[in-house]
Design a protein that fits this description.
Blueprint (H helix, E strand, L loop, with lengths): L1 H9 L14 E2 H9 L12 H14 L2 H5 L9 E7 L4 E8 L1 H5 L10 E8 L11 E5 L8 H12 L4 E5 L20 H24 L5 E6 L1 H11 L6 E5 L6 H5 L9 H10 L1 H10 L13 H8 L11 H8 L12 E2 L2 H8 L1 H7 L8 H9 L1 H15 L14 E5 L13 H4 L4 E5 L3 H7 L6
Parallel strand pairs: 1-9, 5-6, 5-7, 7-8, 10-11
Antiparallel strand pairs: 2-3, 3-4, 4-6
Length: 450
């Protein structure tokens, strides 16, 4: 019962609705993404042999028992600093990421040491319980201050402690030469995920040994998905509150607004230059959901009439390319925009309009043409992202009744059309929606995540 109580602290007063039809994309999501200078994967996929190692390792960590046994229960943690403040106690620590022990040649020297802050209330609530939640970082969330002040400290008032884990490639773990949050290779995001899954086991084991509990994991956007992967590999009941995330990272990088931040020409060139991608890796990766589910293409119509739509689930990128031939890469419905009254007031502000005047409010036809031109890279991206991040490829969390997912109806960063529903993958989980886009949900509905 206390675990349920813990969830209510993390996410409350959200109106739940079932979303059957595709919804418009938040205009603010599109504008915000185009303002940012951050680009992703500017150096390509990463070495083909490294991707092969990561794909093989995914099959190990996707099994809860195998993954959990990779990390000794008494894994060494170094306490760096302790300080007592007026409103909390902060303990800072570090340890070597277990993934660096299994893949030493893949983990950058700057990435291999994990840093964290344990933020505890000065007085625990009565009852003998000491709940603690790990907060995973969203895209661009470097260091500890943002999560500590915005997410952790409000929960302290309810007697819930926090562990704030520095993301690989961020903050104290950002490699020299990396600009801001711009991961240089596609393989970096899979290294990031592998590190965080094993590091969460280290920290959860440590918390259990210190007598903390119940335990939980949460995060916003990318952090929400990392929290989901962490929960799937913990062999006991654990509270999970993923916010503004979904069941796979595939649509984030192929259909969402972030897909315009990728150098598809570079990825296509590298994909075609090395036969390993085409002849080996593309045959290993499987696109989990029907690749045409969000479109009304001739292929979809034909397969519907033939009763073969189910056969398009779990399909390789090469098989998709054989099906589509010269047809467009993606025929998902054109972007339409929706914004709340609060967003409308923001966008009608004269200063804001002046600042955004050069920016087109229409969907980027340039990005669509680029993905159509580089369709081999596009479909391989779908396949490799599904293979490494789709929740269907991982164990179901120990107790799905302890899961509440919070999503934005008009999320432009994480499209959900045609993607497996979280409540179908994890029966018993609760999914709730806020009537906003991705960015506006974080700005104006953030209190609903706590």
């Amino acid at each position: 019962m206390l675990c349920q109580y813990f969830i209510l602290f993390s996410c409350f007063h959200i109106k739940s609705q079932f979303q059957k039809m595709p919804t418009p994309v938040s205009r603010l999501d599109v504008i915000y993404r185009r303002i940012l200078l951050t680009k992703f994967f500017m150096k390509g996929w990463g070495a083909a042999e490294n991707l092969k190692m990561l794909l093989d390792f995914r099959k190990i960590i996707s099994n809860r028992e195998h993954c959990y046994n990779l990390v000794p229960s008494n894994y060494p943690i170094k306490i760096i600093n302790k300080q007592r403040r007026s409103d909390c106690e902060i303990i800072e620590g570090s340890f070597t990421s277990p993934l660096a022990l299994y893949m030493p040649n893949l983990i950058h020297q700057d990435v291999k040491t994990a840093y964290f802050q344990l933020v505890l209330p000065l007085n625990w609530p009565t009852g003998g319980f000491k709940p603690v939640c790990i907060h995973f970082a969203g895209t661009g969330d470097h260091f500890f201050w943002r999560r500590r002040n915005i997410m952790a400290k409000p929960l302290l008032q309810n007697g819930i402690g926090a562990i704030i884990l520095e993301n690989p490639y961020y903050g104290l773990r950002k490699p020299e030469g990396q600009l801001r949050s711009s991961l240089q290779y596609v393989s970096d995001i899979f290294i990031m995920g592998g590190c965080l899954v094993l590091e969460s086991i280290v920290l959860l084991n440590w918390c259990a040994q210190l007598g903390f509990g119940p335990l939980g994991v949460t995060g916003i956007s990318m952090g929400g998905h990392m929290a989901s992967l962490a929960a799937s590999n913990w062999p006991a009941p654990i509270v999970l509150v993923p916010c503004l995330s979904w069941s796979t990272a595939s649509p984030v990088f192929t259909e969402g607004v972030m897909s315009e931040s990728i150098d598809w020409n570079k990825l296509q060139e590298e994909y075609l230059a090395d036969k390993t991608y085409q002849d080996i890796l593309a045959k290993i990766c499987r696109i989990v959901d029907n690749p045409f589910a969000c479109s009304f293409t001739a292929q979809e119509t034909a397969y519907t009439l033939l009763g073969k739509m189910d056969e398009l689930s779990s399909i390789t990128p090469n098989e998709v390319l054989n099906l589509i031939e010269d047809d467009p890469v993606s025929n998902c419905p054109a972007i339409t925009y929706k914004h709340s009254d609060t967003t409308r007031k923001f966008l009608l502000n004269e200063d804001v309009l002046n600042a955004l005047s050069p920016i087109s409010f229409r969907s980027s036809q340039t990005a669509v043409k680029m993905k159509n031109k580089n369709k081999e890279a596009f479909w391989f991206m779908k396949g490799v992202m599904d293979e490494c991040t789709h929740l269907k490829n991982f164990s179901v969390p120990f107790d799905t009744s302890l899961i509440i997912s919070v999503c934005a109806k008009a999320d432009g960063y994480i499209p959900r059309q045609g993607i497996s529903k979280l409540e179908d993958i994890w029966p018993g989980a609760t999914v709730r929606y806020v009537d906003s886009g991705h960015v506006s949900a974080y700005i104006w509905y953030r209190k609903l995540f706590m």
